[in-house]
Each structure stands twice: as C-alpha cells, then as structure tokens.
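Example complex used in Figure S2.
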Amino acid sequence: MNVSEDLDRRFRELAAVEGTLDVAYDFVDTPLGSLLVAQTERGLCQIGFDPEPERDLDPLARLFGSKVLRVPKALDEPKRELDEYFAGSRTEFELPVDVVFDSFRLRVMDELARVPYGSVTTYGALAAKAGNPRAARAVGMFMNRNPIPIVLPCHRVVGASGSLVGYGGGLERKERLLQLEGASLTLPV
Amino acid sequence: MMEAVAVPPFERFYVEHRDGVFAFLVRRLGRDRAEDAFQETFLRALRSYGSLKHASNLRSWVFTIAARVAVDDYRRRRPEPLDGDPVTEDSRPAYAELEHLADGLPPKERVAVVLRYGYDLEYAEIATALGSSEEAARQAASSGVRRLRRKGVQL
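Predicted assembly (344 residues):
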C-alpha cells in the first residue's frame, strides 16, 4: 500500500518543523529553467542550475549532513524572492544565507554582494577591491564555484573588455540575467 | 568484514522505504492508526539518522523502528492497570531486552529474532521487513535463535 501524497507532504513538513533536518530543498521553475534551492537552518546554502537529484543530493549531504529532505513549503520564502526577482520587482535579496568562505575568498564574495542590481564590474576590479589586484584569475574561479548564484550576483562580473567570459550556469543564462536587470555592458573606466 | 556503505541522503532513504513501511504499519495497526505511526517512524529514523555510521541494512533498521512504534501505539491504547494489580519486578518490555541481547547477531538474523520474539510478528510481516520470502524470514529467525542459545540466552 502506497503512501498518499497528502501523508507524504505532512511528514515532510513535520520533519522540517521538528528542526532536525540538515538541509531542506526544493525545485523552482524560473525563466532560466528549473533551479535547485537548498537551505540549512541558518539560511540559503545552495542554488543549482539543471538540477538532478541523483547527482545533487550527495554533495549537499557531504557538506551539511545526511539529513537532506525535499520540503517544498520550507522553501516558500526563497521561492517568493526569486519569483519577484525574475518578475523584475525585486532588485535585492533579503534572505539569510549560509555560505562559508575563508580569508581572500570571503573578501571577494563580500565585494561581489555589493555590486548593485543592473550594473557590472570586472574580475580584475573585484580582485582589486578585495585587496589583491593581480588575482583576477582566482576571482574567476570563485565566481565559477559560487554556491548561490543569482543571489550572490556573479553574473554581474565580466571581462575587462566587456566580454561575458564565463558562467557556471552557461553564458546564455548570464546574458539573460543581465538583460533582465537592464544592465549595459559599458564598463566604468 | 562487511564493506561500509556511505549513508545516503535522507531523501533517498525515505523514498525507498516509505511505501514498504506504510504497508507494514497498515497491516499491523489498520489504516487509520497507520498514518500517525508512519510519521512517528520516520521522525524517529530522522532523529538518529545523523549518527548512523554506515548504510548496511537500513531497511531492517527502519522496520525495527516501525515495529517498535507499533508496539508503543498498542501499549498506549491498552487501558491503564487497576489499582492493586500486582506490580511486576521488571517492567522493561521484552523487546527492549531482546534488542540488547540480539546486538551481536548478523543484521538479518537480528531483525528476524527481534521482530518474531520481541514483537510477536508473523513471518509474513517479518518477510516484508527483510524484503525476503517468508521461508527466508523463518530461517533467519531460527538460525538467530540457535546462535543466541549457544551463547546461553534463554528464549
């Protein structure tokens, strides 16, 4: 005898309310396709493009603990903010986040979080602001490994010549995010 | 030496066993009470999930929890004993004792023994828990019992 959808949903919500989960996650439909959105008790910990549960859940379990469960209701708030962002009515996220970076990377990600909606900066400029102007390549790598793209806006970081260079979710998505924000690729001098 | 299998994310464990556990509880408790017992079973599993060292026999593990939840449900529903009833010397339930004694058995035998002699389950139900035939469940239980008797445990 199979578990009804209703019982399944009630168990998942009860598990989230109990507060013993390491990670609650769900999938969100966006103009960029489905996203995996995951959070710990402390905040948003991962956003992933092209989610595949078979592949995505194990790394989450390794990083945060094995108690990983899909609980759509627990993700209502991040889903609402993402919906508003994609509808063009939200320019800043107010979600608590749970991401841990060390020293230089932390400074880079802090600077990244300050790049305003609708504008762009360069890998080199970000490296300089974080205190190491020659670390553009390292900054590129940090962007590539950004655990919460969109919310931490690595799509707003481009090459010195104004070319898009790269994006963890694919260049086409980077372009669409910049278009959505009405960003012009004319760089500040 | 059994190879240690990494504990899967809870989601995968839950999806794999939810229908089997539910069917088992419906059989034990009836449809109405099975729903609460189902939630309680997976909540208990979730609470201890983080301290699991390996994933061998997660199926037996969760069915043992389900069996315990079913017994607790049954005990809760029994009327309170009247005043003046003789107090037994050791009020620890049989299954708790047995779970402890059976700790050293191979996993399948352990589950079969605990479910049969601790919880009084039918072999057909134990077979559901083990994911095996009724005959295999019977054999696991009897081989487990022989092993315990050799260690001097009275059953």
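The interface with chain A takes residues 7-12, 14, 18-19, 22-23, 26, 35, 38-39, 42-43, 46-47, 49-50, 52 of chain B (CB under 8 Å). Chain B has a mean pLDDT of 83.
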